[in-house]
Design brief:
This protein has 2 domains: about 15-120; about 120-199, no CATH class. The chain is built from 10 helices and no strands. It has helices spanning about 5-10, 20-30, 35-40, 50-65, 70-90, 100-120, 125-135, 140-155, 160-170, 180-195. Helix 7 (about 125-135) runs antiparallel to helix 8 (about 140-155) and helix 8 (about 140-155) packs parallel to helix 10.
């Protein structure tokens, strides 16, 4: 039964427009993340292609949500999709409302966070961490703190800056957001700071 909605979605999205967006929004309302992730979209036409930007943002969400529902071997391709479509959405969002662009940027930061968690230590992890820091920005919160912490903990930043990065991570996590992830990060920041004899 799921094949028909997927075929209709694929057919509607040969070129992003009202029909495509309506089908994609319907899929999101149903929680049909697999259908959204499987939707192939043509490239956006430029920095002010609002319909394409929204379609790409919906596909990015589908890929990110689906990545949390599949076995590990399938996860990386979906997270790559979430990052690629998220970047495409922002690149085409010049005429989208600022609040919508901010929402998509935050979603893209979460996609980079999720992909970074799958990376082995090395240049690819550091590249995703740098992108996470860029999209999370400087506002206090879990994602921004996580990016600063990993810059030090994973040796993505010059060693001389590690204590400063850890202090910044602690500042960005104050007041601490709710949830176990933030508590774990706070403990990791404290442990890493002690292990490096940071002031």
């Amino acid at each position: 039964m799921k094949a028909l909605p997927l075929l209709l979605l694929v057919a509607a999205c040969a070129a992003p427009g009202i029909a495509c967006l309506d089908r994609m929004k319907d899929a999101a309302d149903r929680g049909d993340w697999a259908a959204l992730a499987a939707t192939e979209l043509p490239a956006c036409t430029g920095p002010a292609d609002a319909a394409c930007a929204e379609a790409q943002a919906l596909r990015a969400r589908g890929c990110r949500e689906q990545a949390g529902r599949v076995p590990a071997p399938q996860r990386r391709a979906l997270l790559d999709c979430a990052v690629t479509s998220g970047e495409a959405a922002l690149a085409a969002a010049g005429e989208s409302p600022p609040a919508r662009r901010a929402e998509w940027q935050q979603a893209l930061a979460w996609s980079y966070f999720a992909r970074r968690q799958e990376q082995p230590r090395g240049p690819a992890l550091c590249a995703d961490n740098e992108a996470l820091a860029r999209h999370a920005g400087d506002a206090p919160g879990f994602l921004a703190a996580s990016a600063r912490f990993n810059a030090a903990a994973e040796d993505c930043a010059p060693r001389a800056s590690h204590c400063a990065r850890l202090a910044e991570a602690a500042r960005l996590l104050t007041p601490r957001p709710p949830g176990p992830e933030a508590a774990s990060l706070a403990a990791a920041i404290s442990l890493e700071s002690r292990s490096r004899a940071c002031p």
